[in-house]
Design brief:
Helix content is 17%, strand content 23%. It has 279 residues and is an alpha/beta fold. It has a seven-stranded mixed sheet with strand order 2-1-3-5-4-6-7. A five-stranded mixed sheet has the order 8-9-14-13-12. Strands 11-10-15 form a three-stranded antiparallel sheet, with no helix packed on it. A hairpin with a 2-residue loop joins strand 10 and strand 11.
Length: 279
Protein backbone atom coordinates (compact mmCIF):
# COMPACT_ATOMS: atom_id res chain seq x y z
CA UNK A 1 0.00 0.00 0.00
CA UNK A 2 1.45 3.30 -1.05
CA UNK A 3 0.99 6.18 1.36
CA UNK A 4 1.93 9.79 0.95
CA UNK A 5 2.68 12.25 3.72
CA UNK A 6 -0.37 12.85 5.85
CA UNK A 7 -2.55 10.40 3.94
CA UNK A 8 -3.67 8.70 7.15
CA UNK A 9 -3.91 11.87 9.24
CA UNK A 10 -7.66 12.16 8.87
CA UNK A 11 -9.74 10.32 11.46
CA UNK A 12 -11.33 7.29 9.71
CA UNK A 13 -15.04 6.62 9.69
CA UNK A 14 -15.98 4.40 12.61
CA UNK A 15 -18.29 1.45 13.00
CA UNK A 16 -21.07 0.88 13.51
CA UNK A 17 -23.15 3.98 13.05
CA UNK A 18 -20.36 6.22 11.81
CA UNK A 19 -19.25 3.79 9.11
CA UNK A 20 -22.74 4.08 7.59
CA UNK A 21 -22.91 0.43 6.62
CA UNK A 22 -26.17 -0.22 4.75
CA UNK A 23 -29.02 -1.49 6.90
CA UNK A 24 -31.90 -3.57 5.57
CA UNK A 25 -35.16 -4.30 7.35
CA UNK A 26 -35.50 -7.63 5.55
CA UNK A 27 -33.32 -9.91 3.39
CA UNK A 28 -32.99 -9.13 -0.29
CA UNK A 29 -35.55 -10.81 -2.50
CA UNK A 30 -34.32 -14.19 -3.65
CA UNK A 31 -31.29 -14.13 -1.37
CA UNK A 32 -30.55 -16.77 1.23
CA UNK A 33 -31.21 -15.79 4.84
CA UNK A 34 -27.82 -16.06 6.56
CA UNK A 35 -28.10 -16.47 10.31
CA UNK A 36 -25.25 -14.87 12.25
CA UNK A 37 -23.52 -17.00 14.87
CA UNK A 38 -21.31 -15.77 17.72
CA UNK A 39 -17.84 -15.42 16.23
CA UNK A 40 -15.07 -17.22 18.11
CA UNK A 41 -12.06 -15.80 16.28
CA UNK A 42 -11.03 -13.03 13.86
CA UNK A 43 -7.91 -13.50 11.71
CA UNK A 44 -5.88 -10.89 9.82
CA UNK A 45 -3.78 -11.45 6.70
CA UNK A 46 -1.98 -8.80 4.65
CA UNK A 47 1.18 -7.77 2.83
CA UNK A 48 1.65 -4.78 5.16
CA UNK A 49 4.68 -6.27 6.94
CA UNK A 50 5.19 -7.35 10.54
CA UNK A 51 5.25 -4.40 12.92
CA UNK A 52 3.34 -2.26 10.43
CA UNK A 53 1.23 0.57 11.85
CA UNK A 54 -1.36 -0.35 9.22
CA UNK A 55 -1.97 -3.69 10.94
CA UNK A 56 -2.20 -1.95 14.31
CA UNK A 57 -4.73 0.52 12.88
CA UNK A 58 -7.02 -2.29 11.72
CA UNK A 59 -6.77 -4.01 15.09
CA UNK A 60 -7.50 -0.77 16.91
CA UNK A 61 -10.69 -0.31 14.89
CA UNK A 62 -11.78 -3.89 15.62
CA UNK A 63 -11.24 -3.42 19.34
CA UNK A 64 -12.90 0.01 19.43
CA UNK A 65 -15.91 -1.46 17.61
CA UNK A 66 -16.34 -3.90 20.49
CA UNK A 67 -15.01 -7.11 18.98
CA UNK A 68 -14.55 -9.61 21.81
CA UNK A 69 -13.19 -12.54 19.80
CA UNK A 70 -9.43 -13.17 19.80
CA UNK A 71 -7.51 -11.49 16.97
CA UNK A 72 -5.10 -13.91 15.27
CA UNK A 73 -2.41 -12.77 12.85
CA UNK A 74 -1.97 -15.27 10.03
CA UNK A 75 0.71 -13.47 8.03
CA UNK A 76 1.60 -9.86 7.29
CA UNK A 77 4.80 -10.61 5.40
CA UNK A 78 3.23 -11.93 2.20
CA UNK A 79 4.98 -10.97 -1.01
CA UNK A 80 3.91 -7.40 -1.73
CA UNK A 81 1.25 -7.05 -4.46
CA UNK A 82 1.25 -10.82 -5.18
CA UNK A 83 -2.46 -11.63 -5.16
CA UNK A 84 -2.03 -15.19 -6.41
CA UNK A 85 0.37 -16.27 -3.67
CA UNK A 86 -1.67 -14.46 -1.03
CA UNK A 87 -4.85 -16.17 -2.21
CA UNK A 88 -3.26 -19.57 -1.71
CA UNK A 89 -1.89 -18.74 1.75
CA UNK A 90 -5.23 -17.26 2.82
CA UNK A 91 -7.07 -20.44 1.92
CA UNK A 92 -4.40 -22.76 3.34
CA UNK A 93 -4.30 -20.88 6.63
CA UNK A 94 -8.06 -20.60 7.12
CA UNK A 95 -9.45 -23.83 5.69
CA UNK A 96 -9.24 -25.58 9.06
CA UNK A 97 -11.55 -22.96 10.57
CA UNK A 98 -14.46 -24.59 8.70
CA UNK A 99 -17.13 -25.39 11.26
CA UNK A 100 -15.88 -22.66 13.59
CA UNK A 101 -17.73 -19.31 13.49
CA UNK A 102 -14.93 -17.01 12.35
CA UNK A 103 -14.17 -13.85 10.38
CA UNK A 104 -11.10 -13.61 8.15
CA UNK A 105 -9.94 -10.10 7.24
CA UNK A 106 -7.55 -10.14 4.27
CA UNK A 107 -5.90 -7.19 2.56
CA UNK A 108 -3.55 -7.58 -0.40
CA UNK A 109 -4.91 -4.79 -2.48
CA UNK A 110 -2.67 -3.14 -5.10
CA UNK A 111 -5.78 -1.64 -6.72
CA UNK A 112 -6.99 0.05 -3.53
CA UNK A 113 -9.16 3.08 -4.21
CA UNK A 114 -9.87 2.03 -7.80
CA UNK A 115 -12.84 0.32 -9.40
CA UNK A 116 -12.44 -3.10 -7.76
CA UNK A 117 -15.27 -3.99 -5.39
CA UNK A 118 -15.00 -4.48 -1.64
CA UNK A 119 -16.53 -7.77 -0.50
CA UNK A 120 -17.80 -9.75 2.44
CA UNK A 121 -18.41 -13.48 1.91
CA UNK A 122 -20.12 -16.25 3.84
CA UNK A 123 -18.91 -19.77 3.02
CA UNK A 124 -21.85 -21.40 4.79
CA UNK A 125 -19.57 -23.38 7.12
CA UNK A 126 -18.94 -20.74 9.79
CA UNK A 127 -16.19 -18.92 7.89
CA UNK A 128 -16.76 -15.38 6.68
CA UNK A 129 -14.24 -13.37 4.68
CA UNK A 130 -13.75 -9.66 4.10
CA UNK A 131 -11.42 -8.30 1.43
CA UNK A 132 -11.05 -6.88 -2.08
CA UNK A 133 -12.65 -8.47 -5.14
CA UNK A 134 -9.35 -8.87 -6.98
CA UNK A 135 -8.81 -12.64 -6.92
CA UNK A 136 -7.61 -12.75 -3.32
CA UNK A 137 -10.47 -15.14 -2.49
CA UNK A 138 -9.75 -17.45 -5.44
CA UNK A 139 -8.72 -20.53 -3.47
CA UNK A 140 -11.42 -20.02 -0.86
CA UNK A 141 -13.96 -20.11 -3.69
CA UNK A 142 -12.21 -22.93 -5.51
CA UNK A 143 -12.31 -25.22 -2.49
CA UNK A 144 -15.77 -24.27 -1.21
CA UNK A 145 -17.98 -27.33 -0.79
CA UNK A 146 -21.24 -25.38 -0.61
CA UNK A 147 -22.68 -22.18 -2.10
CA UNK A 148 -20.80 -19.02 -1.16
CA UNK A 149 -22.80 -15.83 -0.65
CA UNK A 150 -21.13 -12.46 -1.20
CA UNK A 151 -22.14 -8.85 -0.74
CA UNK A 152 -20.56 -5.67 -2.04
CA UNK A 153 -19.51 -3.30 0.73
CA UNK A 154 -20.16 0.41 0.54
CA UNK A 155 -17.10 2.64 0.83
CA UNK A 156 -17.94 5.18 3.57
CA UNK A 157 -17.69 8.88 2.83
CA UNK A 158 -14.35 10.06 4.16
CA UNK A 159 -12.61 6.68 3.82
CA UNK A 160 -8.93 7.07 2.96
CA UNK A 161 -8.57 6.03 -0.70
CA UNK A 162 -5.25 4.35 0.10
CA UNK A 163 -6.35 2.50 3.24
CA UNK A 164 -9.52 0.48 2.77
CA UNK A 165 -8.10 -2.07 5.19
CA UNK A 166 -8.87 0.29 8.05
CA UNK A 167 -11.81 2.24 6.69
CA UNK A 168 -13.79 -0.39 4.74
CA UNK A 169 -12.70 -3.96 5.49
CA UNK A 170 -12.05 -3.70 9.23
CA UNK A 171 -15.47 -2.09 9.92
CA UNK A 172 -17.18 -4.85 7.93
CA UNK A 173 -15.19 -7.53 9.78
CA UNK A 174 -16.14 -5.91 13.09
CA UNK A 175 -19.81 -5.88 12.09
CA UNK A 176 -19.74 -9.58 11.21
CA UNK A 177 -17.84 -10.43 14.39
CA UNK A 178 -20.46 -8.52 16.39
CA UNK A 179 -23.31 -10.56 14.93
CA UNK A 180 -24.47 -8.41 12.02
CA UNK A 181 -25.94 -10.68 9.29
CA UNK A 182 -24.14 -10.59 5.96
CA UNK A 183 -27.13 -9.20 4.08
CA UNK A 184 -27.11 -6.10 6.29
CA UNK A 185 -23.68 -5.09 4.98
CA UNK A 186 -24.58 -4.60 1.33
CA UNK A 187 -26.32 -5.91 -1.75
CA UNK A 188 -25.70 -9.49 -2.79
CA UNK A 189 -23.31 -9.52 -5.73
CA UNK A 190 -22.93 -11.78 -8.72
CA UNK A 191 -19.81 -13.21 -10.31
CA UNK A 192 -16.60 -12.51 -8.42
CA UNK A 193 -13.17 -11.88 -9.91
CA UNK A 194 -11.35 -15.17 -10.49
CA UNK A 195 -7.69 -15.82 -11.21
CA UNK A 196 -6.71 -17.52 -14.46
CA UNK A 197 -4.30 -20.40 -13.90
CA UNK A 198 -3.86 -22.05 -17.27
CA UNK A 199 -0.24 -23.15 -16.84
CA UNK A 200 0.91 -25.21 -13.86
CA UNK A 201 3.19 -23.06 -11.72
CA UNK A 202 4.68 -22.49 -8.28
CA UNK A 203 1.99 -21.23 -5.92
CA UNK A 204 4.07 -20.81 -2.80
CA UNK A 205 7.44 -21.57 -1.23
CA UNK A 206 7.37 -22.27 2.50
CA UNK A 207 10.09 -21.29 4.99
CA UNK A 208 11.82 -24.66 4.50
CA UNK A 209 12.13 -24.06 0.78
CA UNK A 210 9.51 -26.65 -0.16
CA UNK A 211 7.92 -25.75 -3.50
CA UNK A 212 4.11 -25.94 -3.62
CA UNK A 213 2.81 -26.24 -7.17
CA UNK A 214 -0.69 -25.82 -8.58
CA UNK A 215 -0.82 -29.49 -9.61
CA UNK A 216 -3.16 -31.85 -7.74
CA UNK A 217 -2.18 -35.19 -9.34
CA UNK A 218 1.28 -36.56 -8.59
CA UNK A 219 3.29 -37.03 -11.83
CA UNK A 220 6.21 -39.38 -12.30
CA UNK A 221 8.45 -36.47 -13.31
CA UNK A 222 8.27 -32.69 -13.02
CA UNK A 223 10.27 -29.96 -14.71
CA UNK A 224 10.89 -27.01 -12.41
CA UNK A 225 12.93 -23.97 -13.45
CA UNK A 226 14.74 -26.02 -16.08
CA UNK A 227 15.46 -28.94 -13.73
CA UNK A 228 13.80 -32.34 -13.97
CA UNK A 229 12.74 -33.92 -10.69
CA UNK A 230 12.33 -37.67 -11.09
CA UNK A 231 12.27 -38.98 -7.53
CA UNK A 232 8.84 -39.55 -5.96
CA UNK A 233 8.49 -40.25 -2.25
CA UNK A 234 5.81 -40.40 0.39
CA UNK A 235 7.66 -38.21 2.89
CA UNK A 236 11.04 -36.66 3.74
CA UNK A 237 12.24 -39.64 5.74
CA UNK A 238 12.12 -41.74 2.57
CA UNK A 239 14.31 -39.36 0.55
CA UNK A 240 18.09 -39.23 0.23
CA UNK A 241 19.81 -35.95 1.19
CA UNK A 242 20.69 -33.68 -1.72
CA UNK A 243 18.18 -35.13 -4.19
CA UNK A 244 14.97 -33.15 -4.88
CA UNK A 245 11.82 -35.25 -4.88
CA UNK A 246 8.09 -35.01 -5.53
CA UNK A 247 5.42 -35.72 -2.95
CA UNK A 248 1.77 -34.97 -2.34
CA UNK A 249 1.67 -32.33 0.40
CA UNK A 250 -0.73 -32.08 3.31
CA UNK A 251 -2.68 -29.35 1.49
CA UNK A 252 -3.47 -31.69 -1.39
CA UNK A 253 -1.06 -30.13 -3.90
CA UNK A 254 2.06 -31.57 -5.51
CA UNK A 255 5.20 -30.29 -3.83
CA UNK A 256 8.93 -30.50 -4.43
CA UNK A 257 11.10 -31.05 -1.38
CA UNK A 258 14.72 -31.56 -0.44
CA UNK A 259 15.63 -33.34 2.76
CA UNK A 260 17.27 -31.00 5.30
CA UNK A 261 17.64 -28.23 2.69
CA UNK A 262 15.76 -25.82 0.43
CA UNK A 263 14.47 -27.25 -2.84
CA UNK A 264 13.62 -23.74 -4.04
CA UNK A 265 17.20 -22.55 -3.56
CA UNK A 266 18.76 -25.58 -5.21
CA UNK A 267 16.42 -25.49 -8.21
CA UNK A 268 16.12 -21.71 -8.51
CA UNK A 269 12.32 -21.79 -8.27
CA UNK A 270 10.36 -18.69 -7.25
CA UNK A 271 6.70 -17.73 -6.96
CA UNK A 272 5.08 -18.04 -10.36
CA UNK A 273 7.74 -20.28 -11.90
CA UNK A 274 6.16 -22.48 -14.57
CA UNK A 275 6.29 -26.23 -13.97
CA UNK A 276 5.62 -29.05 -16.43
CA UNK A 277 4.46 -32.56 -15.55
CA UNK A 278 6.01 -35.43 -17.45
CA UNK A 279 4.15 -38.71 -17.21
Amino acid sequence: MAAGTGVHDAEPARLLGAARLPRRSRPLAGAAVLVAEPVQVVTLTSDFGWGSPYVAAMKALLVRAGVQAPLIDIDHDLAAFNIRAAAFVLWAATRDFAGLPSVHLAVVDPGVGGHRRALALDCGDGRRYVGPDNGLLEFVLRHADRPVHGVELTVPVGAAPTFHGRDVFAPAAAALASGTPLDRLGAFCGQLVRLQMDEPHVLWVDRFGNIVTSLRALPTELEVAGHRVRQVHRTFADAAPGVPFLYLGSLGYVEVGLRDASAATQLGAVLGSVVAARG
